[in-house]
Amino acid sequence: MAQNKRIKVNELDFDTIKDNFKNFLRGQEQFQDYDFEGSSFNILLDVLAYNTHYNALYTNLAVNEMFLDSASKRSSVVSIAKMLGYVPNSASCAKVFVNATITAPTYNTDVVTLPAGQPFLTSIDGVSYTFYNTSDVTTVAAGGFYTFNNVELIEGVPLVYSYYAKPGQRYVIPNANVDLDTLKVKVRDTATDDSFIVYVKAESLTSLDANTKAYFVKELDDGLFEIYFGDGVVGYAPQEGNYITFEYYVSSLDAPNGANTFSYAGTAILGSGLTVIATGPAFGGAEPETTESIKYNAPKLFAAQNRAVTTEDYKSLIFKNFKQAQSIVVWGGEDNDPPVYGKTFICIKPTDTNKLTNAQKDFIKNNIIAPKSIVSITPEFVDPEYFNVQINVTAYYNAKISDKTPAQLETIIRDAIYSYDDTYLQSFDGIFRYSQLVGIIDGADQAIVNNTTKILVRREFTPRYNTSSEYKLNMINPIYRSSIPDEAILTTGFYIPDSPNIHYIDDDGIGNLRLFYFDANQNKYIVNPTIGSVDYAKGTLVVRNLTITSMAASKFEFILTPESYDVVTAYNQIVQVDRQYLQVSVINDATAAGSNQAGKNYIFTSIRSAQ
């Protein structure tokens, strides 16, 4: 019998480990009952194999937690990110900008101040939320009113927590969902002192010296945050006995987003309250950064090295500091069409709406980009363009293998399409892949045997009323060229000057866009056969000298038939499913049930005609 005095150590499976022990024991003559179930030695082998397997598994998990890519525990991810100089984003308080007005009294004071910390009330779905102005706002009378313009309010619960500085003291903020952007760190010599020093958050070690009054932040295992200070070499250290106060807001996360009606509940000013009008809905409330987001952003921000030079630098800085960004695309002016040198173009899709407000753009430009960017490069924001894919699904199912009704299957298919939209689309790098979608529809339920799916692409424009305007569209995707007018391109209805008829625009199949309407007998009357042009191969079209007085439909949209059923995007374009126009019908397929004569009664669905 061949001697086997080596034990293989490259196996992790319990049974394989035990077999390796047995193979080793076959090479000796002292113990012979190792290969008999129930024997004492066999039980010892079980214990040895279990211990080996347990330690191998533990070691493997521990090693995985040492690397950012493979770590799964949040505490491990946060710890590794800290070595890259990355602090996870805290929760965010919702913000809103309002104009607050009060009637000027007969005794006209020169200046009126709205003190900081005044409450403004709102409610969403029956739940009340309180917003506060975080700084004093001053105004003067104009036209018989005092108006506080563009006042920033933030939602949350204002809290204060204090410590005495002493050796070994840890400064932990004891509340969850703290918005670190609202944190103010004040240090007094003693608890009774009126004067204090405000410490600022350390952003870069290169700007710190022994006298810099700065603080640092790190996340703890339970999601709380700890504040710590310099050591007297890098950053100033508070002295023993100093009284340290943390002032901050605890966020209600994203629940207050969208609030747009507010009432003033603070101290009366000039004997009366304020009339409050929001300039837009509340935005920005968000949960703390997810583990996956930390793993994605930490190495990118580390690569950016605290500056904005490359397009990836811009994306990393914005993702880190603007928590409402769902998707970001950045491209240099040299890559623009046409090229615009000296500019960087930035497009952001927010999480809670279709485009940024002007206030959000100003915040990103002035507070996030400007301190890090090159002076000679000018950032320019552009809004996203949405390609809304209109989908018409006819699904066939086998009634013999399912007790679901057509209505239930329709709901299942809709949910599958919504999931596809959420997972693969709605971002700047999303691509609508036709075969992927029809495969998902077929796989939505075992009873579905096949589907016939047609698509159109809808592009919405904001109409410019009562002025002769030009509208341009670059689809990137080729447009279907048909000899049948209006099969490839058609708009929703609108009115033009000096006409009671609803007008539309279509194409003539040879590159011209036409303005037309239908008369009382539904005969098409061409008003202008060359109001624009279309390049089918490039997917571009332009409408010239179009004056719209009002819309007959709810939107001004171009409805296009793409040459390919795959829809790609570039630059600031986003493709998504148009849920408003999603149509799903379900048909019982008798051929799938095995009926010999079912074919002659098969219900065919045309895929040729899209409009």
Helical content (DSSP H or I, runs of 4+): 10-25%
Largest sheet: 7 strands, antiparallel
Assembly context of the chains: single chain
Number of strands: 32
Taking Cα atoms only, what radius of gyration do you get, to the nearest Å? 33 Å
Inertia-based shape: flat
Compute the average pLDDT: 86
The share of residues in extended strands comes to 25-35%
Structural class: alpha+beta
Low-pLDDT sequence parts? none
Number of helices: 8
Span of the ends, CA to CA: 81 Å
Task: Explain how this protein is built.
By secondary structure, the protein is an alpha+beta fold. Helix content is 18%, strand content 33%. It has 8 helices and 32 strands. It has helices spanning 14-25, 40-64, 74-83, 291-304, 311-321, 358-369, 406-424, 434-442, and strands spanning 95-103, 112-114, 119-124, 127-133, 137-139, 141-142, 145-155, 157-164, 171-173, 178-188, 197-201, 214-219, 225-229, 243-250, 263-264, 275-278, 325-332, 343-350, 378-381, 385-397, 448-461, 469-474, 489-491, 494-495, 503-507, 512-518, 524-535, 540-546, 550-551, 556-560, 573-577, 583-588. The strands form 7 sheets. Strands 1, 3, 4, 6, 7, 15 and 16 form a 7-stranded antiparallel beta sheet that branches. Strand 12 (214-219) and strand 13 (225-229) form a beta hairpin. Helix 3 runs parallel beside helix 4 (291-304) and helix 4 packs across helix 5 (311-321). The longest helix has 25 residues, at 40-64. The model has no long low-confidence stretch (mean pLDDT 86).
